[in-house]
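Example record for the data management plan.
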Amino acid sequence: MMPVVIQGSASPSLSSKLSKEMGWRLVRPEMRRFPDGEIYLRIAAGLKGQEVVVVQSLSPPQNEHLIELLLLLDLCRDLGAKKVTAVVPYLAYARQDRRFREGEALSIKTVAKVLERADRVLVVEPHSKESFSHFRRAREIRVFTLLGRYLGSLDLKNPLFLSPDEGSLQRVKEAAQAAGVEFDCLWKERLSDTKVKVEWRKPEVGGRDVVVLDDIISTGGTVVEACKLLKGARKILACCVHGLFVGDAVHRMRSAGIKEIFSTDTVESSFSRISVVSAIASHL
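Corresponding structural encoding:
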């Protein structure tokens, strides 16, 4: 019996692409809200004995999307699904993977625990090895080579891929190798939730196109600070897997000198130029 793709409200385009890529039936749950804000969900399609793939990103509003995902996973089980896979294109709370102060919640541990109701979990580029270590039945989907191939297809002049910190250096290396270009790394110190300090030992970029490449762009603070070190660059671009673009992030990056912004469809937006559907399909 052919598996079924269940469309979460945070990933309508990606789930539709996955259904077409795999040749599987797409099911769109009925969803509405009660007057008090609680979610109503119903799946009219029969799922008894079938394999089910639920696609739901945990992008903002993270808490609502997480609750919806949990309801969908349990509902599929209640309807008799034989196997339930959760595809989580963007994993929220992954940056809360360690305790910096006594008494802090280890949020990603809790999220990993509640997602264990799925038979397996597929996550696209989780933020860190530490965050992913809390999952028991999960697989990481790496996609930086896809970013590299896409960026390599653009008409960039003597391009340089720049990692914002050592934590993303290996990922940026993968993208650079796929594109056949040079790469380098900044040094970053986080001062607060919204402020960072960025330094670079080799700020010679005269006439070059520089791509600041990261797994997540949230407030845009890291990209803005990086731009200050890239004086003389012909063009500065920002590219990421998970484009959250919180608040005025896009305006801040544009004002700092970013000419183009690219992201994937793990978080669906007008900047989602790169699809991760082929990478997800290869793990199903």
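Summary line stored alongside the record: The domain at 4-141 is CATH 3.40.50.2020 (Rossmann fold).
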